[in-house]
Amino acid sequence: MIRINVIGSGNVAHHLIRALLQLEKSQPQWQLQQVMARRAKQLPHELPAEKHIDDIALWKTADLCLVAVSDDAITAVTEQIKQEDLLVAHTSGSQPMKAIATGLRRAVFYPLQTFSIQKPVDFKTVPLCLEAETQSDLALLKSLAMALSEKVYNIDSQQRKALHVAAVFACNFVNHMYHLSAEICEQEKVPFEVLLPLIEETAAKVKALHPADAQTGPARRNDKKTLKAHVDFLQDEKKRDLYQLLTHSIQEHVKKL
Amino acid sequence: MIRINVIGSGNVAHHLIRALLQLEKSQPQWQLQQVMARRAKQLPHELPAEKHIDDIALWKTADLCLVAVSDDAITAVTEQIKQEDLLVAHTSGSQPMKAIATGLRRAVFYPLQTFSIQKPVDFKTVPLCLEAETQSDLALLKSLAMALSEKVYNIDSQQRKALHVAAVFACNFVNHMYHLSAEICEQEKVPFEVLLPLIEETAAKVKALHPADAQTGPARRNDKKTLKAHVDFLQDEKKRDLYQLLTHSIQEHVKKL
């Protein structure tokens, strides 16, 4: 039996705890033993009260600890762990493995997904990016990861850094484009929902085509008349500047093809 | 019976013709009578050869003509239609209704989706944005649209202009973000597929949440340490500038909340 302690109660911890509770039902060799969290409020309702601790003094010996706290807190939180030589993995995309305090077996267990507490996530589809100091620790993490998800990757710290930046472009900046798009719709009282099938198809397309080949639209075609009409339409200077900059960037990329 | 002639053989024409051929099988009151296209190469294979014409002299009297040609060609192409007072709808998001030649009953039948010939599209999910000069023409277009798709909207020319710009943000610029993201992955030899579930979830999230509420990440949290690490990581000046500009734009929007 592998006893897992989790530290944290944020978005990632919330979904990870739910996935672990689900897992121990079907594969009881994996036991979610304790969740250490100062605030119980954001913890999933299905977590049995006796598994929640808010004081490190109540810590029970574990085989693995998953630390899902904010990036800045990883070092301070892991310094409090008194169980020597424990395997401890943080869940951050941006922090190096060595953010974990010394005296522990360090590892990373990074779920690459956008988590919000209000939206359920199918953990089976969440890519889990793993790193560990030894092959045997990596093997243990990998067997847990494969029990939780169908998508498991070995990703070293440098690759994870790249992935994290790439994820900002593919998620946060993409969502910001949706936001600007919604503002343009609201201004002319067009329901944003008209754009949802386009948004879905644009995301679906890159499963089959490289984004370079999936590109369409006036910038790609260098349709000067439409580009000018769009710039003229955009009254808001910031949106207009972004429009021109991104159009230019698309055209620079088209040239390279 | 409503006889429909289509002009064009590009991406939109291709998918529209396929949808119309499908429709006439189940609802024979709608007849795809002729497709006028100079190049037969891009036409769907299932189009019977006798329905394809490449000379306007072979035109048969129709009840409705759908013009799916490039924006710049709409006026010239519709000037060739000799059937007086025919109901003619173009399929462009950016052109006004009056781009259609005089002497015809003008309308717009704009399918708001990203079409590539190599990727099949479920036409039932394609939003169709309609405009016409008279209520009776609008009613005819609407009954066709509702037979083809579950998403039909009345959108006037000004709203369509906004939608078209909004679609550039939500599709072309989004796809460009995917492209930049893929380049960052390629540079560190991380497979881009690791990001696909994140891309899918980011798109799915805005079905349930407004993009303002769906935003996550270092810009949203104003996580200065991570923002700095990302900027330091980006060696390519253009990507770095875009990163800073989009981060700034997200933070300006967060302030407004």
| Helix-strand topology string of chain A | EHEEEHEEEHEHHHHHH
**Number of alpha- plus pi-helical segments of chain A:** 9
Which percent range fits the helix content of chain A? Answer: 40-55%
Task: Summarize the biggest pleated sheet of chain A.
Answer: 8 strands, mixed
Strand % of chain A is: 5-15%
Give the beta-strand count of chain A: 8
Q: Radius of gyration of chain A over alpha carbons?
A: 22 Å
Task: Note poorly predicted spans of chain A.
Answer: none
Whole-number mean pLDDT of chain A: 95
Quickly give the structural class of chain A.
alpha/beta
Which term fits the overall shape of chain A?
Answer: elongated
Give me the oligomer status.
homodimer
* Strand line-up of the largest beta sheet of chain A: 3-2-1-4-5-6-7-8
Summary, kept brief:
The structure is a homodimer of 257-residue chains. Chain A is α/β, with parallel strands linked by helices.
Walkthrough of the structure:
The structure is a homodimer of 257-residue chains. Chain A is an alpha/beta fold. Chain A is 46% helix and 15% strand. Chain A is built from nine helices and eight strands. Chain A has an eight-stranded mixed β-sheet with strand order 3-2-1-4-5-6-7-8. In chain A, helix 8 runs antiparallel to helix 9 (237-256). The model of chain A has no long low-confidence stretch (mean pLDDT 95).
Question: What's the layout of helices and strands?
Answer:
Two copies of one chain form a homodimer.
Chain A: E1 2-7, H1 11-26, E2 30-36, E3 52-53, E4 64-67, H2 74-79, E5 87-90, E6 105-111, E7 128-132, H3 135-148, E8 152-154, H4 157-187, H5 196-208, H6 211-214, H7 218-221, H8 224-233, H9 237-256
Parallel strand pairs in A: 1-2, 1-4, 2-3, 4-5, 5-6, 7-8
Antiparallel strand pairs in A: 6-7
